[in-house]
Design brief:
Oligomer: single chain
Bound molecules: pyridoxine-5'-phosphate
Number of strands: 8
Number of helices: 11
Shape: globular
Distance between the termini: 19 Å
Largest sheet: 8 strands, parallel, barrel
Strand order of the largest sheet: 1-2-3-4-5-6-7-8
CATH architecture: Alpha-Beta Barrel
Number of domains: 1
Structural class: alpha/beta
Amino acid sequence: MSLLYPPRLGVNIDHVTTLRQARGEDYPCIKRALKQCLENGADQITIHLREDRRHIQDADCPIVRNITSDYNKLFNLELATAKDVIDTAIHCSPDWVCIVPEKREEKTTEGGLNLQDESVFKKIAQTVETLRSNISGVKVSLFLEANLKTMEIAKKLSPEAVEIHTGEYAKSFLAKSDKVESYLKDFMIVQQYLVENKIHCHAGHGITREMLPQLLSMNIFEEYNIGHWIISESIFNGLGPVVKDLSEIIKK
Ligand code: PXP
């Protein structure tokens, strides 16, 4: 199924601030990281303001807003439904908000929103409403598992996009498991449903450079949000060159 727009690269810079927060210093400098990403082909900067503020802080959000605007690029803020986090989102006006589930004890986001649970659905519906009525022109994306029933429920919230959780696919890919094929099949099924309903189909979680040729060849996703691998690889090759390389692969 064809894409609604050409694929783009969202660089998640959370782990630049993981390193900063680990020592409570002012480095690595988030402004410097943003500029290196945006000057080397990132189409979007993604950050996750977590309830426990383990990496990105509230004060980082307007910095990301200002610098992405200066470069005429997109700002995607990932968040759960805590009120103080939503208030910060309202103050910094991201272009996109990606709503994710969040558990304090998790190492990272562990899966998509469970919209099949009525109380979760209601909470997300309220959050979407609050965001739309307080952030002019904001686009909403929902972080979901690749499951048709969940897509049908998600459609009721009229999201501009769904970000498919690729974490389990990524683990299978790295383990060379034969489950990869079944994840790809699920991605194709949900993408077809989303495109038919004019909802953009994004990808995020666990993606590394090695997976991109396979994912790109299938023409499923219009946006790739990649963080942990980029920051890890930057230790060896530098942030700018790593982002440039991925951007070239995605845009080829
Ligand atoms: N998309 C979402 C919704 C996420 O929660 C994360 C992790 O914060 C990412 C993308 C980036 O994932 P990774 O750091 O594994 O590349």
